[in-house]
Structure formats: structure tokens, C-alpha cells
Amino acid sequence: MEQKPKARLACLTFPHLALVLVWRAHPELKGEPVLVGGAGPGGRRVVLATSPAARAKGVRTGQDWRRAEVLCPQAARLDADLAAVAELRRQGRLALGSCSPLVEWGDDTSAYVDLAGSDPVRPEEGVRAAHCGRVLKEALGTTPRVGVGSSRFAAWAAAQQAAPGRVRLVPSGRTAEFLATWPVTELPIPQEMAERLMQFGLRTCGDCAAVTMVDLQRQFGPDGILLHRLCRGLDSAWIDPWREPPPCGVRRVLAGGVEDSESLRFGAAELARGLAQELSRQGRAAGRIRLILRGDDGSQPLVDQKAWWGEVAPPAPMATADELLGPLLNLFRQARPQAPVGVVEVQAFDLVAPPVSQVGLWQGRAANREVVQRAVERLHDRFGRGLVWRVEVRPGHLGDVPEERLVWSSR
């Protein structure tokens, strides 16, 4: 099997969903100090979300509610609507799920999207990351910042430097250079560790990168190894994917891991038939299909680092098994799984009304009187009225012999 290309992640950051809902209900509070409260550890009331104006006064997420009121007494105080937050979270996940099957939702202020896989419509990673930002904006009603990097922290740091609605790319191989000026006080490390680094004169990632991992480990233990990796952009790029069935799709669990690509292609016809049946049940056609090859049955959280996925978007929507089979076989030919395949999934996106075809009329998918009449009129206009005939019951005939009971007319 071919070597897997270096992972690339997109990080999308946005205001806390609880604050987004407050702004949606009270647009006059945008730009004002706002505190959104919720239950914290032990049931005590804490700050669940806060606006930039309140953060400027020293209020932080997770802070005790009374402490926040003292720091910012003029702030508007509201309770979080947890049910509405959960629904908005679901909408955001589904929106990003249409961009990639590997999506990790963070703490309601960030999300990660794996940009691996093949997308013929948006092959460049910058274009794909921008598309993720647009679909998330449509779902949440707020404009995210988007960063792309080869590790989680690099992608997150790039998102912090991006303007809302913009994408900041960190080129592969230049992560350490990008992080060189990043302050240690903004690293995901314990506060006490950051203070000690400042006392040692190590104020940026570049300063820490000049120190060997052995010396950092000697001073800080396991946190020193983490610091070494963060400053060089070597932290993990794998994500813990969120899984929810798409609006339309089929999934097959294989009997044991399959490594032979020819054996995988052998099942394409059955997958095409299954997806066509699901599309027919919903009365829709697919503008885009996605093939996912997983190395597991979905019972473990981190195995998706062994997943392969690809997409194809033919010129016309697909609804029948014959229409789906060709693009699906092309995806199987492109597949480069990194481990034996245990699960095969085919998902349909950009669902639209199925195109009217003669086959569709025969199968009854579009057999309503108006659609049939329009189809007949088009054929009459193009080929003449003698081409399409109408079958009618002979008036007054009570027999059951078709040749005697039915009459054909071009009217």
C-alpha cells in the first residue's frame, strides 16, 4: 500500500454557541459585555460564555459567577439555553460532516476537520477549508476563523491569527517557523509552567525550541516533552471523529479485514443498489457521493486515523443504481486504504429532486399525471404525435382479454 500523505487539519474557531444564541435573540447586545451562566463542577454557577467586552474586564470562561459579577458589574447576565445549544451543535456538526467524514467538535468554540481524502470539486486545501467556513457560517449564523496546519496546535494557532471569514495556512514543513514568535503564555500548558518559563527568559516557542528535549524534560517532567512537541508543531494531527449517519447512505460491515482492492470493487454493484433504494425511498437524487473505507466497526474512538475517503460529483444528479455504479467504481480505483478494510460506507449529499426520465416514469418514481403529461408533450413536440400512444379501455367492453379490452390512441 502507498505511503499516507502528511495529515492536514483545518481548525475553525467561533464564539461560544451559548453566546451566539444570545446575540441571535438580542442583537442589541453585540459589542456589549455579556455573561452567560451555566452549571459547573459540583453544581456551582460558573461563566459558560462571555463576550469580548467582558473578557477585556478580566472575565474568563469557567470563572465563578460571583467573581465575574465583581469584575464586570455592568455586564448583561443571562442563563444558557442548553437544549438550544445542543441543537445548534448538531446543526454545526452536520454542516461540517458534509465537508469531511472526519470531524471533531471541540468545546462549542472550535471544531477540527481532516482535509485528507479526494475532492475533485475543491482539490486545493485552502479552497476546501474556506468551504468548511462557509457551510459552518450558514449553520451557526456567525463567521468562523479558519486555520490549516499539520498539527492540532498549529491549526488552532493559525485560526487565532486569521480574520473572521478568512483562512490562514501554515505550509507543511514550516510549522516551527510559524510558531517561533508564539508566546508561551498562550500554549496549552499549566499556568505554573508558563510562569517558570518566563522566569527562565523563555518567552516564545522559538526560545523553547532552542532548548533540548532532555533539558525540558529534566525541568518539567512529561510536560517538558509536550512543550518540546508543541513548539515544533509535532503534536498529534489525529482527531477523535464525531459520527452520525448522514441524511442518506448505506453501510456494510465486512467479514474480516479486506486488503485486496479487487475484492472491494466486487461489492460496488451491491452498494450502488442499496444507495439507489435509499434515494428512491426519499424521492431524491444525489449530486455528490462519498466513499469511506474504515479499518474498524466504529466501536473505538481513534481508529479513524486508518480511514480513507474520497468524493465524486458528476455533472448530473444520480438516482439509479446504473448511474451510481460508474462513479462508485472510480472511487474504489482511487482508494488507498492504510489498513485492512472492515467497514465500507457510501454517503449521498447535495440531495435534489430526481431528474425526470423515461425509466423513472416506468418505475413509478415520477408517475403523477402532470409530470407524465409534460414528458409526453415534449416527445410530441420533438418527434411528432405519432410517436407516443395512449392506452385506454374500450368503452362498454366488459371482457378481460387485453387485445379486445384495450385500445391505443395517439390523441
Number of strands: 14
User: Which CATH-level-2 architecture of the largest domain?
Assistant: 3-Layer(aba) Sandwich
Shape: elongated
* Number of domains as seen in the coordinates: 4
Order of strands in the sheet with the most strands?
5-6-1-7-8
What share of the residues lie within helices?
A: 25-40%
- Low-confidence spans: pLDDT under 50, at least 5 residues? 1-5, 299-304, 361-366
Largest sheet: 5 strands, mixed
Number of helices: 17
Structural category: alpha+beta
CATH class of the largest domain: Alpha Beta
Distance between the termini: 63 Å
Tell me, rounded to a whole number, the average pLDDT: 83
Strand content: 15-25%
Radius of gyration: 28 Å
| CATH fold field value of the largest domain | MutS, DNA mismatch repair protein, domain I
